[in-house]
Amino acid sequence: MADNIIPYNPKLVPLARKLRNNSTLSEVLLWKRLRNKQLRGYDFDRQKPIGNYIVDFYCAELMLAIEIDGSSHELKSEEDACRQKEIERLGVTVIRFDDFAVKRHIIQVLEELKWQMRQLERE
Question: What's the pTM value of the predicted model, to 2 decimals?
Answer without folding.
Answer: 0.92
